[in-house]
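Mods, move this if it's the wrong board.
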Amino acid sequence: MTNKSTLTALVAALAVTTGGLGLSLTGVFDQDGLTGQDSGQWVTSNTANGLMMGHLVVEAHDENGNLTAYRQSDNEVVDDGEQCILKMLFNSAANDRGAAGSQACSGANTSAWDIIAIGTGSTAAADTDLLLGNETSTTAGLERAKTESKTWTNGTGATTTKIVLSKQFTLATGASDHTIAESGLFNDTTVDTNGMLARQTFTGVALSAGDSITITWTFTVGN
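Not the wrong board. Structure tokens:
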């Protein structure tokens, strides 16, 4: 796992086969990273062409709408998400999950990764993560939910194709204070069913009743 986690350009084809992330194929596939075709050899390079990168932005506001915290970081795409992407892309059996291992591709196999969850766990994100460290699954206003906005930018030529997913959470009146320090992107609204694509931690953001926190995940594909 590395910063600016990357997946092969085949991720973009999910839109065609599953209606998942819905990323355009425009400008994703090219021959710049392939050599030796005449001899039947496929040699990969470290070119940045055809890769997928993600970014996380966190903004918090008090009950009066004043900005109280701002965080940003590259995302961390986890193993389970990577495995699920390829199975959704190449496997015709919609429910054939786990064939390559008990943790390979979990959650709703045909659903989009547009469910955002937050939590108070501070352990750094890892390839093997399946869940958040401590999800706020029972805290009024902070439960995982479908994104409120999903914005597409279709790239052409040298410009990138991008999707931005965002959700605002507001801590309910009378709820105890929480310090949010992690977020994850899932394909299921049911807690503890896995189906995680990405997770990231950040410096904790303190919330009191009436405060809100907006999580924005961005994924970019292209040159």
